[in-house]
Amino acid sequence: MVIDITIVSVALPSIQSDLGGSLAALQWIIIGYTVTFGAFQQAAGSLSDRLGRRAMFMSGIALFTLSSLACGVAPNALTLDLARGVQGVGAAFVLANAMPLIAQVYEGQARNMAIAVWGTTLGACGAVAPVIGGLLVDLTQWRYLFLINVPIGAIALFLCRTRLPADPPRTSLAGIDWTGAGLLVLTLGVINFGLTRGEDQGWGSAATLAQLGVGVVLLAGFLVLERRVQAPTLDLSLFRVPTFVAATLIAFFSRFATVGGSVYYILYFQSARGLSPLQNGLLMMAIFAPQLGMGLVAGKLQAKYSPSHIIAAGFGILAIGGLAMAWSFDRDTAIWAALPGLLLWGVGGGLAGSPSMSLAVNVVPKQRAGMASGAINSLFMFGAGAGAAIFGILFRDRISDRAGGEPVLAGADHDEIVSAAAQGDISRALEHVPDAVTGQVRRTLETAVSDGASNVMTWAAIICVGTAAVALTLVRKKDLLTGAPEPEKTPDKAEPEPA
């Protein structure tokens, strides 16, 4: 489900060739999934506390599987767009209930290890999406990007029926905050849509400002409503617990730095260094492999050390990795110079990831784990969108500054050239310059993209340092209801030796 966020991007040319449709219709293949996936997270998590986690989890898998089938057999772009939106809803119901299910079954260090296995896989999936997507498109056709989910979903449903614990008796539906849940879905949907479309519409455009403005107004209305209802979709009193506040901030800024930054170092490798999507995906294994291994190490470390120290250490390593990448992003430097930074990025992400995910469900009773999980997952999506947006502005500004220093690029087509380069399409940017200077302009734009990516990773490193500080100052062991380091066993008093 995480892979499906980005796996489709490598297949867009094939999809357009097969189904036709406008550029806007193609963009909705990604936007529709992302918006609904983010919008339904909190509502799905909170409702599962009342309706049953097993039922909601299985419903999500069924919906995701059926909509994947619909995507795979879609006869036109509109059908594919609609099916992708439904697929995002199913994914939200699954992801929002996965961690609460783990929290329901496991306690203490066993819970930490279970979340480490799940969370590490979740966090590393984005790195392998380009590899899987590239292989499937090269070896088969784009429809198998979706059809491969059908047998996986069927197996998952079988395992759910045979392995998952039964839900407790369902409570009355009368007290559920349906209005709050619906308003929150609308709020998150509008804000996610604004963040997703901001780059294409322009961050200062009337459309983007209106979308984000409406989202803020809806959010304010939701917060007012939640203070008045008896059983809120999101209990605002949770934010009085410093460790829960830390969990939300860490969730937001971790994805801001890691997912937001990944967009631009991938653009660097593809645009400035000329790697294919498959080659780029294989290079990303330098992040995936250590992230997977260190996530499991982090789970074991939680048996002895405070999560605040583990999380802070992870973000400290992320910061060093980000700075190492920023230094290596130069078109005149060997591409392998980026490997140390990529490896450190994976080590730090794995070390910080699983204890960060555990925090929210470890500070609430089991009965409210869905609400806590939904909040964290929503902020993961928000952080990723906000990071891509803010870093996009920094990236584009650096490219614009570099391009402004090139006399041939100072003409009327400057904005079009900068826009194409910022989207990683230097070939399209070169269409706006005379043939005699394309080689010179290409070098300038490749250098500009390198500088832009370096600037982004420098800021990502700064954000990682700030996130480490949040973990050290706000995460308190006394707030953890479960999952804290196991108390050391005191030795039994020695028996007096016989006379």
From TrEMBL:
<feature type="transmembrane region" description="Helical">
    <location>
        <begin position="278"/>
        <end position="298"/>
    </location>
</feature>
<dbReference type="Pfam" id="PF07690">
    <property type="entry name" value="MFS_1"/>
</dbReference>
<dbReference type="InterPro" id="IPR036259">
    <property type="entry name" value="MFS_trans_sf"/>
</dbReference>
<dbReference type="InterPro" id="IPR020846">
    <property type="entry name" value="MFS_dom"/>
</dbReference>
<feature type="transmembrane region" description="Helical">
    <location>
        <begin position="335"/>
        <end position="353"/>
    </location>
</feature>
<feature type="transmembrane region" description="Helical">
    <location>
        <begin position="25"/>
        <end position="44"/>
    </location>
</feature>
<keyword id="KW-0046">Antibiotic resistance</keyword>
<dbReference type="InterPro" id="IPR011701">
    <property type="entry name" value="MFS"/>
</dbReference>
<dbReference type="GO" id="GO:0022857">
    <property type="term" value="F:transmembrane transporter activity"/>
</dbReference>
<keyword id="KW-0472">Membrane</keyword>
<dbReference type="GO" id="GO:0046677">
    <property type="term" value="P:response to antibiotic"/>
</dbReference>
<feature type="transmembrane region" description="Helical">
    <location>
        <begin position="56"/>
        <end position="78"/>
    </location>
</feature>
<feature type="transmembrane region" description="Helical">
    <location>
        <begin position="142"/>
        <end position="160"/>
    </location>
</feature>
<protein>
    <submittedName>
        <fullName>MFS transporter</fullName>
    </submittedName>
</protein>
<feature type="transmembrane region" description="Helical">
    <location>
        <begin position="237"/>
        <end position="258"/>
    </location>
</feature>
<keyword id="KW-1133">Transmembrane helix</keyword>
<feature type="transmembrane region" description="Helical">
    <location>
        <begin position="115"/>
        <end position="136"/>
    </location>
</feature>
<feature type="transmembrane region" description="Helical">
    <location>
        <begin position="203"/>
        <end position="225"/>
    </location>
</feature>
<feature type="transmembrane region" description="Helical">
    <location>
        <begin position="374"/>
        <end position="395"/>
    </location>
</feature>
<feature type="domain" description="Major facilitator superfamily (MFS) profile">
    <location>
        <begin position="1"/>
        <end position="478"/>
    </location>
</feature>
<feature type="transmembrane region" description="Helical">
    <location>
        <begin position="84"/>
        <end position="103"/>
    </location>
</feature>
<dbReference type="GO" id="GO:0005886">
    <property type="term" value="C:plasma membrane"/>
</dbReference>
<feature type="transmembrane region" description="Helical">
    <location>
        <begin position="310"/>
        <end position="329"/>
    </location>
</feature>
<feature type="transmembrane region" description="Helical">
    <location>
        <begin position="456"/>
        <end position="475"/>
    </location>
</feature>
<feature type="transmembrane region" description="Helical">
    <location>
        <begin position="172"/>
        <end position="191"/>
    </location>
</feature>
<keyword id="KW-0812">Transmembrane</keyword>
